[in-house]
Amino acid sequence: MSDCLFCRMVDGEIPADVVLSTDRVLAFRDINPQAPTHVLVIPKEHHRNLGALAAADGELLAEVARAAHAVALQEGLVTDGGIEPGYRVVTNTGPQAGQSVDHLHLHVLGGRGLGWPPG
Ligand code: AMP
Ligand code: ZN
Questions:
Q1: Gap between the Cα atoms of 119 and 116, Å rounded
Q2: Cβ distance 111 to 36 under 8 Å?
Q3: In a domain, 119, yes or no
Q4: Which of 100, 104, 106 to mutate for ligand 1's pocket (most ligand atoms within 8 Å of CB)?
Q5: How far apart are CA 36 and CA 48, in angstroms?
Q6: 116 in a domain, yes or no?
Q7: Which residue among 18, 21, 50, 82 has its CA within the 20 to 30 Å range from the CA of 74?
Q8: Residue-number span of the structural domain to which 93 is assigned
Q9: Percent of the chain whose predicted confidence (pLDDT) is above 90
Q10: Which of 47, 103, 105, 107 is catalytic?
Q11: Could you tell me the CATH number of the domain that includes residue 74?
Q12: CB of 92 closer than 6 A to ligand 1?
């Protein structure tokens, strides 16, 4: 989709600070980080939100989830087999949740204490 920001980042038309890339998944740093680690994990194929990807390709959704955990490991937010210090995965769907880019992305957040409930 040529009018999709994240598809354009996958295609290399817009620069991305990439931290992980596989055949089907890309992870890059958020341009407006909300925590010391704030990485977005996306399928390279366009799916508009979590429900759309879950319906279309469950294996790809699992790959995105595995990549989110791999990023957390890479960033030192957890250790192999451990859960310390920890991290949060968020995905927004729709305007009330604050979704601003209609290409599924998991926010991986960590590196500071994260309040609950979120805003
Ligand atoms: P959401 O509001 O949940 O749809 O998240 C979209 C995220 O994309 C926001 O956290 C933005 O800061 C981030 N973002 C927007 N443009 C870029 C960009 N060019 N590179 C990296 N992150 C971006
Ligand atoms: Zn897209």
A1: 8
A2: yes
A3: no
A4: 100
A5: 27
A6: no
A7: 50
A8: 5-110
A9: 97
A10: 105
A11: 3.30.428.10
A12: yes
Q: How many domains does the chain have?
A: 1
Query: Could you confirm whether 105 is annotated as catalytic?
Result: yes
With a 6 Å cutoff on the Cβ, whether 18 touches ligand 1 is no
For the chain, what is the mean pLDDT? 97
Rounded to an integer, the average pLDDT of 70-97 is 97
**Domain contains 56:** yes
Whether the Cβ atoms of residue 63 and residue 79 lie closer than 8 Å to each other: no
- How is residue 65 written in tokens? 């989830």
Q: Which ligand is nearest to the CA of 31?
A: 1
Q: How far apart are CA 88 and CA 93, in angstroms?
A: 16
* Residue 17 Cα to ligand 2 middle (Å): 17
β-pair partners for 27: 20, 41
Global model pTM greater than 0.90? yes
Does the CB atom of residue 100 touch ligand 1 within 6 A? yes
Question: Quick one: pLDDT at residue 2?
Answer: 80
Q: Residues 6 or more apart from 111 whose CB is under 8 A from it?
A: 35, 36, 37, 75, 77
